[in-house]
Design a protein that fits this description.
alpha+beta; NADH Oxidase; four-stranded antiparallel beta sheet; two-stranded antiparallel ribbon; 6 helices; 22% strand; globular; binds flavin mononucleotide
């Protein structure tokens, strides 16, 4: 499954099967920003995910540069509400907050992925599944551009006050994930996978 595609002035070789196996979750990023044009292309590839009724449920808030402060402040406030972080008045908590803030601010881009909730459970699952397919498509496309991502989910995705801090109605919108994005500083080793024969049950009659 190797194909060639023209992207801007560059011709890149796309090998989807190689990308599926080679992609790793990236935990350490270089400081360099990714061009907006490239990020838009990556999310465009993401958007070719299957989507029932062509709902295309994904929405993205991309935080970068000083904009990251909004997201990081909201995350810290949420962790404080949940009780995972203490008040900044406490010296020990203040140190933890400062190092968390510094860590998150050094990641070049954070993409908050959200979708409109459905009251019908089947529809809700269809939208969530489609958003997950969007995320994985985007991760694979990013890998082809030499860009890494970390798919993150944390308790704050259920915090309606965090949603409000980010301008979202938490009753109507579901936060699916926050993707950390940038050029990889270090690519973790491949942990491999369980042979699929251990997971696969074939029923032929
Ligand atoms: C829905 C989802 C949520 C995840 N959340 C986190 C996370 O919060 N923090 C983290 O370090 N990794 C997170 N991961 C990444 C997994 O840890 C990673 O995919 C796994 O270790 C396998 O590594 P690989 O992606 O490099 O193959 C998440 C992955 C998925 C699919």
């Amino acid at each position: 499954m190797v194909g060639k595609e023209k992207l801007g002035s560059e011709v890149i070789v796309i090998d989807i099967l190689t990308a599926i196996k080679a992609r790793r979750s990236i935990h350490r990023f270089k400081k360099d920003e990714v061009d907006t044009d490239i990020l838009q292309q990556i999310f465009t590839y993401g958007s070719y995910a299957p989507t029932h009724y062509m709902k295309e449920p994904w929405n993205i808030k991309l935080y970068q540069r000083e904009g990251k402060r909004q997201l990081v402040d909201a995350i810290i406030a949420s962790y404080q509400r949940i009780g995972m972080l203490g008040s900044a008045a406490d010296a020990k908590a203040a140190k933890t907050i400062a190092s968390m803030r510094q860590f998150l601010m050094t990641i070049p881009h954070h993409a908050l992925i959200y979708f409109e909730k459905e009251s019908d459970m089947v529809r809700y699952e269809e939208e969530y599944a489609s958003v997950c397919a969007f995320i994985q498509n985007a991760q694979l496309a990013a890998w082809e551009f030499g860009i890494g991502m970390l798919w993150t989910i944390a308790p704050y995705i259920h915090d309606k006050a965090l949603a409000a801090d980010l301008g979202l109605d938490g009753e109507a919108m579901k936060i699916a994930a926050v993707m950390q994005i940038g050029y990889p500083e270090k690519i973790p080793h491949d942990k491999g996978r369980t042979p699929i024969s251990e997971k696969l049950e074939i029923i032929s009659e």
